[in-house]
Amino acid sequence: MNLLSYDFMVRALLGALFTGLAAPAVGTYLVQRRLALMGDGIGHIAVTGVALGLLTGTSPTITAVVVAVIGAVVIEVIRESGRTSGDVALALLFYGGIAGGVLITGIAGQSAATLNSYLFGSITTISASDVWVTLVLAAVVVAIAVGLSPQLFAVSQDEEFAKVAGLNVRVYNLLVSVMAAVTVTVAMRTVGLLLVSALMVVPVATSQQLTRTFRTTLFAAMGLGMLASVGGVTVSAYVDAAPGATIVLLALAGFVAAYPVGVWLRRRQRLARPFVEPGDEPSFGGLGPEHTAVPEDHSHAHGEACGHTAVPHGDHVDYVHDGHRHAVHGGHYDEH
After folding, report:
1. Which end of the chain is less crowded, N or C, counting CB atoms within 10 A of the terminal residue's CB?
2. How many of the other CB atoms lie within 10 Å of CB of 131?
3. CA 245 to chain centre
4. CA separation for the pair 321, 231 (Å, rounded)
5. pLDDT at 277
6. Which Pfam family, an example, fits this chain (predicted)?
């Protein structure tokens, strides 16, 4: 079966491609700010926007964008207030959003199946105009996420440092919240409002296992998001399953595969990391009690050609051997 011979599949694949590109771009900043579930909360609020669109005969996508943006701004204001009751207020906002959506959908005389297409996604039914809207919104989100990455990273990483550097922290935090709201509504036809947070977070978590710098994490997450989205839609066509579920499960499978690689990379990096010598640490010639002598025999002497990783340590060199580092000292080895 050639999927590209069907117009609805071409539209679905394009919608998935753009959504998979934009969602992790915003998700990278949410994860950095430890607000990974913010997309989930905005998704709940957007349900009311979808219902208002169904009630008024307006495009549910447009009304969902408006309501989600208002909700995201309110969430940011509550978060910024720092009150102890802030989490309770957020919970009330989330549950009120989804309950209001269900109520208004009923008043509009729409069936539960109509609302379910937004809750769980229905990418194979999107129109050409939906694809264009998705393309434009995704392009704006990606342009801001990449173009303002130095400022957004500084604010997400350390707000106090960003203030000292002269950045308007409130404006940038609101910008990230608004981008998250737009991304949620863009992705609601792809994976659904209840699963959109997964597409924003899981590719970022997978990317963090394999990369070490923020910029590579950002671009790798966007690539992984596109692969999961396009791959999920393709798999769903062959197994006759909901695309939202296959997209999320494919993204999770990527994280499961990347996690052991990440553990190995972190262990290797930790072992190869040069020592940071404290000012009062004695030199190698006068090893203090923190250096532990270990009884260990070798069939060879460590050196440039021994094949073990060499790590500079003060005035000598340690060697990584069987998961630990040590250096020869006189007639024995010191564990470092």
Report:
1. N
2. 19
3. 18
4. 41
5. 54
6. ABC-3
- Spell out the SS3 assignment of the chain: CCHHHCHHHHHHHHHHHHHHHHHHHHHHHHHHCCCCCHHHHHHHHHHHHHHHHHHHCCCHHHHHHHHHHHHHHHHHHHHHHCCCCHHHHHHHHHHHHHHHHHHHHHHCCCCHHHHHHHHCCCHHHCCHHHHHHHHHHHHHHHHHHHHCHHHHHHHHHCHHHHHHCCCCHHHHHHHHHHHHHHHHHHHCCCCCCCCHHHHHHHHHHHHHHHCCCHHHHHHHHHHHHHHHHHHHHHHHHHHCCCHHHHHHHHHHHHHHHHHHHHHHHHHHHHHHCCCCCCCCCCCHHHCCCCCEEECCCCCCCCCCCCCCCEEEECCEEEEEECCEEEEEECCEEEEC
CA atoms of 257 and 262, how far apart (whole Å): 9
State the sign of the Cα–Cα–Cα–Cα dihedral 132, 137, 141, 143. Answer: positive
In DSSP terms, 127 is beta-bridged to: none
Which two three-digit tokens encode residue 243?
Answer: 């695309």
- Residue type for 129, please? S
Give the number of residues written for the chain.
336
The neighbour count for residue 336, using CB atoms within 10 Å, is 20
How far is Cα 206 from Cα 257, in angstroms, rounded to an integer? 9
**Residue 324 carries which side chain, given as an amino acid letter?**
H
Virtual torsion, Cα 177, 71, 201, 80, nearest 10 deg: 50
The answer to whether the beta carbons of residues 91 and 142 sit under 8 Å apart is no
Is there a contact between 238 and 21 (Cβ–Cβ < 8 Å)? no
